[in-house]
What we know:
By secondary structure, the first copy, chain A, is an all-alpha fold.
Amino acid sequence: MEASPQPTSPGWRLRAYSIIFESDTPAGRTFDIVLLCAILLSVLAVMLESVHRINSLYGPTLRAIEWVFTVLFLIEYVARLIVVRRPLTYALSLLGIIDFLSVVPTLISLALAGSQYLLVIRTLRLLRVFRIFKLGQFVGEGEFIVRALKASRFKILVFLTAVLTLVIVIGTLMYVVEGGQNGFTSIPQSIYWAIVTLTTVGYGDISPVTVLGRTLASILMILGYAIIAVPTGIVSAQMATPSAAAPPAYKQVICHVCQATDHKPEAEYCWRCGEKL
Amino acid sequence: MEASPQPTSPGWRLRAYSIIFESDTPAGRTFDIVLLCAILLSVLAVMLESVHRINSLYGPTLRAIEWVFTVLFLIEYVARLIVVRRPLTYALSLLGIIDFLSVVPTLISLALAGSQYLLVIRTLRLLRVFRIFKLGQFVGEGEFIVRALKASRFKILVFLTAVLTLVIVIGTLMYVVEGGQNGFTSIPQSIYWAIVTLTTVGYGDISPVTVLGRTLASILMILGYAIIAVPTGIVSAQMATPSAAAPPAYKQVICHVCQATDHKPEAEYCWRCGEKL
Amino acid sequence: MEASPQPTSPGWRLRAYSIIFESDTPAGRTFDIVLLCAILLSVLAVMLESVHRINSLYGPTLRAIEWVFTVLFLIEYVARLIVVRRPLTYALSLLGIIDFLSVVPTLISLALAGSQYLLVIRTLRLLRVFRIFKLGQFVGEGEFIVRALKASRFKILVFLTAVLTLVIVIGTLMYVVEGGQNGFTSIPQSIYWAIVTLTTVGYGDISPVTVLGRTLASILMILGYAIIAVPTGIVSAQMATPSAAAPPAYKQVICHVCQATDHKPEAEYCWRCGEKL
Amino acid sequence: MEASPQPTSPGWRLRAYSIIFESDTPAGRTFDIVLLCAILLSVLAVMLESVHRINSLYGPTLRAIEWVFTVLFLIEYVARLIVVRRPLTYALSLLGIIDFLSVVPTLISLALAGSQYLLVIRTLRLLRVFRIFKLGQFVGEGEFIVRALKASRFKILVFLTAVLTLVIVIGTLMYVVEGGQNGFTSIPQSIYWAIVTLTTVGYGDISPVTVLGRTLASILMILGYAIIAVPTGIVSAQMATPSAAAPPAYKQVICHVCQATDHKPEAEYCWRCGEKL
């Protein structure tokens, strides 16, 4: 068990590994595309089942489809476990957990009705989509966005802390000013309103009525309108700096198993899960 | 059939070509401006016809105007086909198809009531407006925006994939949390709500009621407020880079027939439809 | 009549000019501050008069205040006309017209009730506020914003044309898809809805109900969320370019009469109205 | 009284100072984290008390918790006063006032019911959170944002003045156009609507009904959608400039007492409150 996919293992295992985990060979690429379609179809089935009218007409069919996909994904999950060099590392990696959670809810739904809706967690499996295009530009571009966000994470955290403080203080003020009869029935409720307003969503389910309340709300709106410039400015400035535009000499490669990127140019094994690159 | 507008063709054809397709001559400019006014008026007529009160008063007049414009546009379309060097290339180019679709709905409306509203597709003909100003700055500026968006297309796609995944997962969670009695009647419905919230539109036709739902909604709103920084940052950074600011030495010229730009400096024929520049 | 404020004119005229039009002397500064307070108070009086409850209590008082301010502004306007070198140029400049319009509505309201609300046009007189701070940073900063917007005007126009075309086409589609019973009673109405949605305002007075309509609306929302990046990117890139950051060697001076800026360093007379700087 | 925390003072005072005001020692760090938890819990207690259902069940418990925290914070406040070198400077600094206001409302609530909600002012004490992480990146990043905003303050003020003028003029126009029966009952009300619309919040509690009103509203929305580019552009450009990216050689240090930053590299005492750094 020193090398990935176990060099001393029989030929079928090596082949299976390259089909299931890689997408350089035609077979591997086909496998990935079929898998993506299966994921999309199964998510669609879960969605349609939730629509009352469709459920009353085609309910049993949809539930059958769900079971078929669940069994298929279960087989796929077991196959991944068998074929990979370090099953435990895979099982505990982010993608491994998502793969596991994509199968479980249907089984639980036998005991607990309603839990099958958790199947939409399968949507997260679509993240694999990027592997298929790994030779394309997507990895680099995704990397670029993630790197810019990472580099700005302290600034964004400072910004969010300021926003939360503002929202709590103004929310409480509005609770005192407007009072329960205008919809501001409690401080958490008022904070919810303040978030709805500051982010310029503005449902209108709660809205100020008194003159003082409207004045406060106007100030909050103009603040929200102005301070959206802060995160935007942070990310723009980060993306415009040369260091972000010209990424360091990382290998543009994704680990087959845990999808980690940012490998050093000379790396032969994934720095996160130890899989061979 | 070697040169555009057919050098061996009679003089009237050459003249007609320069009037209909070019706008360098006074006659060509006048033709274009008259055409734009006709397009605006016909779109206005279609709009007014849809207003119940106006329709009951001036319905027949508006329908007559529609027919007059349709016949005029039909004549224009046929004239374009006759005069152009490669009629088929024109007919299959984007602008050719739009010109064709601008005429068809009125004819169909004889058989199928209501289809005349598709006439607003004529609005797309207004894209020709840029040709009139081709000596001005518009081509360059339009080019600039399109080039910046093109250069960011992978980043924007990655961003949209992330947004869609987020919206599906949170939409389903809200369906489980809030349930049908609060308006979240199905998963697609909840996803619609999540899009309305994340994009900060916030109609308020569906809005969370439970404490857990409101907490989730607050997180989604703050996320939506923060991640709008990503597309903005991408486009800003792209536009601020020197390569985007100083465009390559392309010819600032639009093809008369298919409106293609980005011709090489030494190009004499359009790279897309083969028309003479 | 060669020089501003008429060198051959008596001393009182020169003094009056420096008080009314300039703000370098203590007297001129005091005049400007008193004027600004008067403008703010008179606008406030007009606003309060429109509130029913306040009007029924203090109506006559408010109307008296209005008349006092109108007479004062009329005197000021006449004084400006007498004192300035070229009365006609002042009267026809933007600020001269605003000064005139600030007086007229009260007079008209004698004949036509309701017209006194047009007095809020006085708010525009507050633009003079920048003159008071002319030694400060405001002129430069205002200049900076205006210059960046001017430099981007073609890009913004192209963007607005694209937005309008999009809004017309999607508005009409929604009219066909949703129909009158869901609030989309006419094409102009649907276009209004499309603008409300694209700009992420989202009143919720009209909102889609059918599945197809909601799908279309979702696309429009995500588009609106994404394309806001375009104007932001344009202005950011413009402001970040060195040419915008380091303004050319213009004189940081505002014309006393027409408030024009951007004078050449060696200029002694305003390029717009001919007043001495 | 020459040095902070009074070098001639007994050892316990020096120790107490380093625990309460600094966070370099384990004891000081523990004190700060306990304090933050206490603040969060006490704010939570105030919030929950405002929820009617929770109040009727656990009201007395919550009020007891409030009193416990108030007494603790009072002790802490007195300790700070005793231990600090210049008690008056601390008491009059921003943080000193916030610390004082965090204790007072509970005492007042004995006489005046409802005033305990002002306790959320305690949230502002969370600003201390940044001190704990002072060795981290937070100070620098917070500094970066504040410096960019400060550098843009004139531009933002000019922008806000323009926005307010726009909102007043359009608000009044809408009042004249729509009139009271459509919700635009007074000019201040209409200005409130204009702010709700321009900032793209869009509650929908007031929305235009007439054709002219909707046209005006559409223009305002597109304006609001476009001019959000201005503050964003200002802050982005400011953050992208090298002078902002590479901050001057200030000491990355916060004053223990008044939280001032931006100290000169050679500074040994806080420039604002005179405390030893």
